[in-house]
């Protein structure tokens, strides 16, 4: 049976720690392997990307494989060829699908009809590769993730959902502050709590950030929600991560953002460019973590 990586919970907890350690080793030792020699991995992207696309293309090459990028608008997917047909065709050419799309159910269709590993490169519901890289970024500073408080300030979106799942696997305390109507999916939150995650939800950013070691935010309108931008700017008033809010965190609290960022909206210019900001390490760690995830799938 092929392994898939659709959410963080696809990696059993004990193995997730190993993936984290391996990603650190990949980084420190500049690891290159031939694990994927003779293998072609297709990147199917229905949304824009800089980091995820390039880190996967480079990462696949550093593991000896061949990445092939397909933008949906240039393929028959963009002309409504059914995904289940596309899956059956592509699986005859390639050894894996790395997919950025809208609904998570599309990945399930690819799993069902493709018969080759599927990796979630972002959906409306989750962004697990990003969060695994963020775990590495926190782990490098504080290996005892289970003793750390992480704040999420902003939209209860795909990133928030993956941070919720991350709290199950890595044991940190997660405090989310979201405006009314923009909370995370209740089923995802409830499941995480049932699985033992320490997660709280408030409408007060100061409460969530109080004592936090890591303060995370993300854009207020995600890809596919561009037409809601103005409405969301109004709803998210008071949710900008600025110096005053950062000051409520723990001593030496770090600011995190998956990027791309909108300065003056979800984060102030001064926080984004401050020494507390670790966003470039997060971006770099995408590469090392992609390689560790691919190794987990293919080894
Ligand atoms: N953080 C992230 O996924 O960036 P891209 O949209 O550039 O891939
Ligand atoms: N929540 C954002 C993340 C981008 C990496 C989006 O889905 O657009």
What does the model show?
With about 300 residues, the protein is of the alpha/beta class. It folds into 2 domains: about 10-125 and about 285-299, Aspartate/ornithine carbamoyltransferase (Rossmann fold, 3-Layer(aba) Sandwich); about 130-280, 3-Layer(aba) Sandwich (Rossmann fold). Helix content is about 40%, strand content about 15%. It contains 12 helices and 9 strands. It has helices spanning about 15-30, 50-60, 85-90, 105-115, 130-140, 160-170, 185-195, 205-210, 230-235, 245, 270, 280-299, and strands at about 40-45, 65-70, 95-100, 120, 150-155, 175, 200, 215, 255. Strands 7-6-5-8-9 form a 5-stranded parallel beta sheet. Helix 6 (about 160-170) links the parallel strand 5 (about 150-155) and strand 6. Helix 1 (about 15-30) crosses helix 5 and helix 3 (about 85-90) packs across helix 4 (about 105-115). It is globular. The structure holds phosphoric acid mono(formamide)ester (CP) and norvaline. Norvaline binds near residues 122, 219 and 258.
């Amino acid at each position: 049976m092929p392994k898939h990586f659709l959410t963080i919970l696809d990696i059993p907890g004990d193995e997730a720690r190993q993936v984290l350690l391996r990603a650190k080793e990949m980084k420190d030792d500049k690891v290159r392997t031939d694990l994927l020699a003779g293998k072609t991995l297709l990147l199917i992207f229905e949304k824009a990307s800089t980091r995820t696309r390039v880190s996967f293309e480079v990462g696949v090459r550093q593991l000896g494989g061949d990445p092939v990028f397909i933008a949906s608008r240039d393929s028959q997917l963009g002309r409504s060829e059914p995904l289940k047909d596309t899956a059956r065709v592509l699986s005859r050419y390639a050894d894996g699908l790395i997919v950025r799309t809208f609904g998570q159910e599309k990945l399930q269709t690819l799993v069902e009809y493709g018969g080759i590993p599927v990796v979630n490169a972002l959906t409306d519901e989750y962004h697990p590769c990003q969060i695994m890289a963020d775990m590495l970024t926190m782990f490098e500073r504080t290996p005892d993730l289970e003793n750390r408080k992480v704040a999420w300030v902003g939209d209860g979106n795909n990133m928030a959902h993956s941070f919720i799942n991350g709290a199950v696997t890595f044991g940190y305390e997660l405090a989310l502050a979201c405006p009314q109507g923009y909370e995370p999916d209740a089923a995802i939150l409830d499941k995480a709590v049932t699985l033992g995650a320490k997660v709280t939800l408030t409408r007060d950013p100061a409460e969530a950030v109080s004592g936090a070691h890591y303060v995370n935010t993300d854009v207020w309108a995600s890809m596919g929600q561009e037409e809601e931008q103005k409405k969301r700017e109004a709803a998210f008033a008071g949710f900008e991560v600025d110096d005053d809010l950062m000051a409520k965190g723990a001593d030496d609290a770090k600011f995190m953002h998956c990027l791309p960022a909108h300065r003056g909206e979800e984060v102030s210019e001064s926080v984004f460019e401050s020494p507390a900001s670790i966003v470039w390490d997060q971006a770099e760690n995408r590469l090392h973590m992609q390689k560790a995830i691919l190794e987990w799938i293919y080894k």
